Amino acid sequence: SQQGEEDPQALSIQEGENATMNCSYKTSINNLQWYRQNSGRGLVHLILIRSNEREKHSGRLRVTLDTSKKSSSLLITASRAADTASYFCATDGAGFQKLVFGTGTRLLVSP
Amino acid sequence: ETGVTQTPRHLVMGMTNKKSLKCEQHLGHNAMYWYKQSAKKPLELMFVYSLEERVENNSVPSRFSPECPNSSHLFLHLHTLQPEDSALYLCASSQVAEDTEAFFGQGTRLTVV
Predict the structure, then answer these.
(1) Residue partners of B1: CB distance under 8 A and separation at least 6
(2) How far apart are CA A48 and CA B77, in angstroms?
(3) Largest CA distance in chain A
(4) Do A44 and B104 touch (CB under 8 A)?
(5) Pairwise CA distance, residues A106 & B49, whole Å
(6) Do residues A93 and A25 make contact, with C-beta atoms less than 8 angstroms apart?
(7) Which A residues 23-42 touch B at CB under 8 Å?
(8) From CA B63, how far away is CA B112, in angstroms rounded?
């Protein structure tokens, strides 16, 4: 299977804390993407990091990529209750039109 | 709104029914996708249409039949489904290019009774 796996499966934190989610994948990639999904709704793209990049920032998001370990992490700083959602990594190892998603991390941010 | 609209949002159908899911994108993209999301399972890529041609069919049972009449519209025709087909069906679109993001619709919550 080419599917990635997120770790942890679930994460519960307080507002203002940082949240870190990890993703591991199995194939070589051109890029890795992170998406967010509010309960029962569609996915929203957060950030894309290319295989030749090691770190990328977007607002309160910081993504790292280690292609030697086939892993990535997503850090959300100063979390808010509105960040409560599931977060998925997706890779294009099967082809750039065949995004393969991981199992997701459910993040709960309590006020 | 992401520019990708799915209808209906919710659908309950019997195992002998025939129904269709519709997806429309207003983003000028030239690739469209169907994903299935079941409880506690990763998203499963079902079908990919690129430039209106099907380029991926991930061993999906024939009771699911996709149709892409043009680059803006995508359908998923359903017939004689099973209860295990109950899931959230997500449509997405993107450009045919590397390093592009996918834009998802809100999904159709399908329940087969």
Answers:
(1) none
(2) 32
(3) 41
(4) yes
(5) 30
(6) yes
(7) 30-31, 33, 35, 40-42
(8) 13
- Which residues in chain A touch residue B98, judged by CB atoms under 8 angstroms apart? 30-31, 92, 96
What is the residue whose two structure tokens read 């079908």? B47
* Chain A residues within an 8 Å CB radius of B4: 42
How large is the average pLDDT for residues B92-109? Answer: 91
Q: Which of B28, B73, B27 is nearest to B49 (CA)?
A: B73
Q: Tokens at residue B31, please?
A: 């690739």
Residue whose token pair is 């203002």: A16
Of B100 and A72, more confident: A72
Which of B43, B44, B89, B103 should we substitute to test contact with A (largest number of A Cβ atoms within 10 Å)? B43
User: Band of the pLDDT at A1, cuts 50, 70, 90?
Assistant: very low
Lowest-pLDDT choice from A48-52, B53-57, B72-76, B97-101: B53-57
* Confidence label for A98 from pLDDT (cuts 50, 70 and 90): confident
* Size (chain B), residues: 113
Tokens for A103?
């199992």
Q: Tell me whether residues B98 and A41 touch, CB distance under 8 A.
A: no
Q: Which amino acid is at A3?
A: Q
Q: What percent of chain A has pLDDT over 70?
A: 95
Q: Please give the Cα distance from A61 to A23 (Å, whole number).
A: 15
CA distance B91 to B19: 16
> Are B4 and B36 spatial neighbours (Cβ–Cβ below 8 Å)?
no
